[in-house]
Amino acid sequence: MAVTDSLKKTARVKSIEKFDFFHDERVRSVFYQLLTAAAVGWVAWYLFTATSQNLEVRGMKSGFAFLGVEAGFGTDFKLIDYTIGTGTYGDIFLIGILNTLYISALAILASTILGFSVGVLRLSSNWLVSKVALTFVEIFRNTPLLIQVIFWYTGIFSLLPKVKKSFDLSGGAEVVLLNNRGLYMPWPVPGDLLWMTGLTLILAIVGAIGYRWWTKMRQNKTGQIAPVFLPFAALVIIFPGVVFFMSGSPLSWDIPVLEGFNFVGGATLPPAFLALFVALTIYHAAHLAETVRAGILSVNKGQQDAARAIGLRENRVMSLVVIPQAMPAIVPPMISLWMNVVKNSSLAIAIGYPDLVSVFMQTSLNQVGHAIEIVGMTMAFYMFVSLTISGLLNIYNKRVQLVVR
Question: CA 340 to CA 338: how far, in whole Å?
């Protein structure tokens, strides 16, 4: 009985010590977090009130009412309708966002494809191929991006032939033309029944994704590999194509035509866009190539030997065995690279491409003032895009990590 009473007392003492407010580690952790949050909140409140008072003393207006004021300037490249004199600074902000996202999305896609290709070629057994890939990486990875942007703009695209001597990139059809004023391409004009083709395409993509999921489950259970590319192509191309022709081909093309000193109609990409796109793609592809190479080398060579031993071809070894195991090492650096593509697109200000920094944080700020609001909105946009990219890729990275285990 004495031993039992002693154990009960010891348990009560330990229980009291465990939940002691001043000595409990969890309580201290929450307390310090609340203290830090309060300090950050106080600093933010102080900066806001001090800034507001200083602006009021100097007679400067604050707030976001300027977004509804008519803007007195336009831009030569925009993805939405905008008219000088009726468009507002809010429209300019939207134009800058869309232009930034447009060039960033295309550069991310192109640099990812090119970076993976160059990274794999770096490990090629062909001496010439591997050395060409190495030269590509060393030149473009070790040159400042701003220099590359200016080089492509002033040294390449600005020196292209004039309008009447344009390069015909369509093999004589004269529908895709490149000159010192930009790239001219046909633009689709949808008809009334095109929605049927679009709906069929969406259903076909869903069916293709379902088929891919079924083949993966079947492979995991039986080890048998079912063809994916041909059924996927059949679903995504044949069925929408049949609906497209049965509905009377409800799609026409607005083709650029030379009238006077320039082309009229179609779609145009200015030289600043082309230069920025090429520079962003090549620069970040060179960085990604080294990440891909390192990720592939992190996979045990015995995995490749085992895959070859069971009869897999080299392309299958790379796509089914090596790359999936290398992705956990590739994805984290790729997150930073994708975010850098978006942030580095702000270098467009050096060549006049109307991105967010150029049309909103420079031209709009010079005209309407409100520096704090404009700079804050610009910073918030880049932060939101970066956090979105990081969040989505982290979800994918966790999935890859679980698959590897």
Answer: 5
Q: Which tokens belong to 225?
A: 């590999």
Strand partners, 185: 267
Scored b (16 or more CB within 10 A) or e, 224-239 reads eeeeeeeebeebbeeb
Whole-number Å distance between alpha carbons of 388 and 104: 14
Distances (CA, A) of 103 to 92, 108, 270, 276, 348: 17, 9, 12, 8, 10
CATH of the domain at 110: 1.10.3720.10
With respect to residue 277, please indicate whether it lies within any of the assigned structural domains: yes
Residue 394 lies in a domain: yes
- Residues 315-356 have pLDDT tens digits of 778 777 888 888 888 888 898 999 999 999 999 989 989 888
Q: By the 8 A CB rule, do 129 and 331 touch?
A: no
Residue 100 maps to a domain: yes
Give percent of the chain above pLDDT 70: 89
308: domain range? 94-137+271-404
The whole-model pTM stands at 0.80
H/E element, 378: helix 371-404
Q: Report the distance separating Cα 179 and Cα 116, nearest Å.
A: 30
Structural domain count, the chain? 1
